[in-house]
TrEMBL record:
Annotated signal peptide: none
Ranges where the CAAX prenyl protease 2/Lysostaphin resistance protein A-like domain occurs: 146-241
Name of this chain's protein: CPBP family intramembrane metalloprotease domain-containing protein
PANTHER family: CAAX AMINO TERMINAL PROTEASE FAMILY PROTEIN, SLR1288 PROTEIN
C-alpha cells in the first residue's frame, strides 16, 4: 500500500526532520527573487518597504507578484525530489502512488469534478448576491494570469501535496507504524500552516476548521485511493479556479481575476458546509467510482 512504501528500517525519523529542513531551505532560496525585487524597488525607485501582506500584494503588478510568490514552489519541488532520492533512497514514484505509474485519468477526473463544482457555486453566489462582487475582467491581464496560473499554481499545490500527503504521511507512518496518526497529524499541520494567511486574521480562527478539514479530506483521499492522484487534482483545481474567478483585498492570492469579492468577510456556514457536507459527498463519489473498500483498515490500521 502507498503509505507502506516509506516504512522501512533505514528510514529513521530524524531523516524526515533533516529532509523537511532541506525542503524549507530550498523554498527560501526560491524567495530570493522576490526579496531582490523588493529591495530594488525600495533603493532604486524609492518605494516604501511593504510591511503588510496588503502592501506586498500591491507593490508590483498583480501578475508579477503572483510569479514572484510562486517561484519558491519550483525550488521546493526540486528539493523534495533530491531529498527523497538521496536522503531516503526512494524513487519519486514511491511518494506519489502505489501504482506502477501516475494515473493521470484520476488527476484529471478529480480536477475536472472540483473545477466544475467551483465554477457553478461561484456563479450561484454571484447571481444570488451580485452586490458582493465587482466585475473586473480585463482581457490582457487575465490572459497573463491564465498562463502564469496554469503553469505555476499546479506546481505550488503539488508541492503541498508531496510534503503533506506524500513525504510527511509516510514519515509519520514510519514513526507510528499506523495510519491514523499520520492522517490526523498531517491534517493538523496542513491547517496550521495556513495560520499566516490573511484570511485568518480577517475571518478569525473559525476558518481553521476549513483548512484542517480540507487537509483531512485530502489525507483520506490519499489513503483510500493508495496514491496522491485525486488529492493532486482536487488541490490544483481548488487554487487555480479560485485565482481565476475571484480575488479580494484579504485573500492570499490577489489576482487579475474575473470577479472581486468586495463583501465584508465573515466565517459562517460557507466555512462549515464544505467540511461537513461537500467533502463527504465527494468521498462518496470517489468511493463509488474507484470501488473503495476496507475503510477502517486503510484509515486506522497498522502499516505492517
Amino acid at each position: 500500500m502507498f503509505v507502506n512504501q516509506g516504512v522501512r528500517i533505514e528510514n529513521e525519523f530524524w531523516k524526515y526532520i533533516v529532509g523537511s529542513l532541506a525542503i524549507i531551505s530550498a523554498s527560501f532560496i526560491g524567495q530570493l527573487p522576490l526579496i531582490g525585487a523588493i529591495f530594488y524597488e525600495v533603493f532604486k525607485n524609492k518605494k516604501p518597504y511593504p510591511t503588510t501582506n496588503q502592501d506586498l500584494m500591491h507593490f508590483f503588478d498583480s501578475n508579477v507578484t503572483l510569479v514572484l510568490i510562486l517561484i519558491p514552489s519550483v525550488f521546493a519541488i526540486v528539493g523534495i525530489y533530491l531529498v527523497v532520492k538521496y536522503l531516503h533512497k526512494q524513487t519519486f514514484m514511491s511518494v506519489t502512488t502505489a501504482r506502477p505509474k501516475v494515473d493521470w485519468s484520476r488527476v484529471a477526473f478529480s480536477f475536472g469534478l472540483w473545477a466544475v463544482i467551483s465554477v457553478i457555486t461561484t456563479l450561484i453566489s454571484y447571481y444570488q448576491n451580485p452586490a458582493n462582487y465587482e466585475f473586473q475582467f480585463d482581457l490582457i491581464p487575465f490572459l497573463g494570469l491564465l498562463v502564469i496560473g496554469t503553469i505555476l499554481i499546479p506546481i505550488q499545490t503539488t508541492v503541498e501535496e508531496y510534503v503533506f500527503r506524500g513525504y510527511l504521511m509516510q514519515g509519520f507512518a514510519n514513526l507510528s507504524k499506523n495510519r491514523w496518526f499520520p492522517l490526523l497529524l498531517t491534517s493538523l499541520i496542513f491547517g496550521l500552516m495556513h495560520l499566516a494567511n490573511p484570511e485568518v486574521s480577517k475571518m478569525g480562527n473559525m476558518i481553521m476548521v476549513y483548512y484542517i478539514g480540507t487537509g483531512l479530506f485530502l489525507g483520506i483521499l490519499t489513503l483510500m485511493d493508495d496514491g496522491m492522484e485525486l488529492a493532486l487534482g482536487f488541490h490544483g483545481a481548488n487554487n487555480l479556479i479560485a485565482a481565476l474567478l475571484v480575488t479580494s483585498d484579504w485573500s492570499a492570492f490577489q489576482t487579475n481575476s474575473i470577479f472581486k469579492d468586495i463583501a465584508e468577510p465573515e466565517a459562517g456556514i460557507d466555512i462549515i458546509l464544505p467540511v461537513v457536507v461537500i467533502y463527504p459527498l465527494l468521498l462518496l463519489i470517489f468511493s463509488r467510482k474507484y470501488q473503495w473498500t476496507n475503510w477502517k483498515e486503510k484509515l486506522t490500521g497498522n502499516t505492517h
